[in-house]
Design brief:
By secondary structure, the chain is α/β, with parallel strands linked by helices. Helix content is 27%, strand content 29%. The strands form four sheets. The protein has a six-stranded parallel β-sheet with strand order 1-4-3-2-5-8, covered by helices on one side.
């Protein structure tokens, strides 16, 4: 997949069928939009493309002053879209100036100007200043330079499948409910770093994972997870928290995974944690023995979960 710099001339770009959206998480609704752009590309003899934005519009428009966190930070989003078999991806730097473009200016510069011959977007897609352009105004703004398809609302349990809904489920720890919306389990990519080396001595060695702070981290607690190491998936349990049994004033959340049937040195490796099921709260135990007994129980609970859900793995 190629990424174009945006100072391109129209004649340098092949005619495109382009999906439009922010696409955080590339959930099942997004996948319909993107795959329809690909289908139309094949049917109309065009190249397929996705146009997305970075950072999230809320950073620039000031609705969300907090550090923004994503279901899929940009590099992850690019990877997922690439796997859908899209030829080109345009990542528009979302600035105040861009947000201020009139709907017609956006269409002229970013759609017609990029040689787009077919547009695909969802029923609620908006464009241009204050989101004034929408799928009803698109025929007018298109100047008959391109055709378009509108993807109807994909719902699950009578509610729209949306990035907002997925973000709030994730923040409530409901990782097990995500596959219905995301089309896969939630994953975070990170690097294995050194911890306090205590895990080994209590019989539960753990990989401490440094996860990019652009990811949404599920709430504190213990989870059934799978982790991908060197292209192989392993089952395990993960603790997200401050390890209160040992640390009085820890400031940084640690994410550590104990894998079953695994004994390799993986410091410095990139790994993917796949979040499956919230098991319990993190607790302060009176001693190591009590903690170890509980982790053994966590392991049994996770093994039971994976056994029951065997058909998926
Ligand atoms: C499945 C699992 C559950 C855990 N639960 C707790 C907990 O409830 N409270 C706690 O203080 N630490 C908990 N821990 C963290 C352990 O205290 C930690 O793994 C151990 O101290 C080793 O830390 P280290 O890797 O920094 O050496 C848990 C770890 C795992 C793997
Ligand atoms: N459930 C859905 N059904 C059909 N199209 C959708 C659905 N969700 C999003 N889309 C479309 O996918 C594209 C990307 O949407 P967007 O990035 O705004 O996602 P979203 O899930 O609607 O996000 P948010 O929760 O922030 O509103 C848009 O064209 C949008 O209309």
């Amino acid at each position: 997949m190629l990424e174009f710099p945006l100072n391109l001339e129209k004649q340098d770009i092949p005619p495109l069928s382009m999906a439009l959206g922010y696409f955080d998480g590339v959930h099942r609704g997004h996948q319909q939009v993107i795959l329809e752009a690909k289908r139309q590309a094949i049917q109309l003899g065009l190249s397929s493309a996705v146009m997305t934005f970075d950072p999230h519009p809320s950073v620039v428009l000031g609705k969300d002053k907090r550090h923004v966190q994503y279901i899929s930070p940009l590099t992850e989003k690019i990877k997922i879209i690439e796997q859908l078999g899209i030829d080109y991806m345009f990542i528009v730097h979302f600035t105040a100036e861009f947000a201020n473009l009139l709907p017609q200016e956006f269409i002229d510069q970013y759609i017609i100007g990029l040689n787009v011959k077919h547009v695909v977007a969802g029923f609620d897609y908006t464009y241009g200043r204050m989101g004034k352009g929408n799928m009803e105004t698109l025929p007018f703004h298109s100047r008959e330079e391109f055709t378009f398809s509108v993807i109807p609302e994909l719902t699950e349990g009578n509610e729209k499948v949306s990035s907002t809904r997925i973000r709030s489920l994730l923040r409530e720890g409901k990782a097990d409910l995500l596959p219905n919306l995301l089309g896969r389990y939630y994953t975070t990519t990170g690097i294995v770093i050194h911890g306090d080396k205590r895990g080994r001595t209590i019989g539960f060695p753990t990989a401490n994972i440094d996860v990019d702070d652009e990811y949404i981290i599920p709430p504190l607690g213990v989870y059934s997870v799978r982790m991908k190491v060197n292209n192989t998936w392993y089952q395990g349990v993960c603790n997200v928290g401050y390890k209160p049994t040992f640390n009085q004033n820890a400031k940084k959340i640690s994410i550590e995974v104990h894998l079953f049937e695994f004994d390799q040195d993986i410091y410095g490796e990139e790994v993917v944690v796949e979040w499956h099921l919230y098991l319990r709260k993190e607790q302060k135990f009176s001693g190591i023995e009590e903690l170890v007994r509980q982790i053994e129980q966590d392991k049994q609970n996770a093994l039971h979960y994976f056994k029951e859900n065997r058909q998926i793995f």
